[in-house]
Amino acid sequence: SYELTQPPSVSVSPGQTATITCSATNLGNTYISWYLQRPGQSPELVIYRDVWRPSGIPERFSGSNSGNTATLTISGTQAVDEGDYYCQVWGGSSVVFGGGTKLTVL
Amino acid sequence: QVQLVQSGAEVKEPGASLKVSCKASGYTFTYYFIHWVRQAPGQGLEWMGWINPKNGDTKHAQKFQGRVTMTRDTSTTTVYLDVSGLQSDDTAVYSCARDGEGRGYTINGLDVWGQGTTVTVS
Asked: Which residues of A touch B (CB under 8 A)?
């Protein structure tokens, strides 16, 4: 199984690049998904299979996954991107979520 | 459009049982597993388990074994989550989510979410 570690918070200025990491031993051996949860809303899938964006997710969202670290990158971050981001994998017998990263755009 | 619509908020006393429904529409119900995820106030996401709507097979997080039951009704395209023996730490928003891949391994992520059902145990 995996224990996913995320930084509790990340801050970024509008228009800059935000990077959110998710770490676990051998994380690159499995597919990872990323979700954005805006305040008061349900989570929304923004990246799946490490690098793929669902329909409707802006191109400024991208992902990578190698070794022990997966990364969600948001280029040209906008105020609407603010919220909690969660990484998630299938841990072999259960779904595992990271603890979440609060992205602040200021 | 593809959507999952959940039942309304609940207030329960300690020791009571809970039943939350999740009605699917806009896609072939039996093609995609449904997961249940909960989120306590101010906390992160916690996976509870999944159900295969095609045959009713379920898989639970170990923490919830024996206390959680997931069922489905194919005639109404609805899945249900039953939780027994509620305690104050079961206070949370309970959400259903569709597995974007047909085997429950979340390879394509959880691509459609219900609006969440707020459950208060007090």
From this structure: 31, 33, 35, 37, 42-45, 47-49, 54, 86, 88-90, 93-100
Q: B2 falls in which pLDDT band (50, 70, 90)?
A: very high
Per-residue pLDDT, B102: 81
Q: Which 3-state string (H, E, C) describes A11-72?
A: EECCCCCEEEEEECCCHHHCCEEEEEECCCCCCEEEEECCCECCCCCCCCEEEEEECCEEEE
Structure tokens, B18: 């809970």
Dump pLDDT digits (tens) for A74-88.
Answer: 999 999 999 999 999
Residue pLDDT, tens place only, A60-79: 999 999 999 999 999 999 99
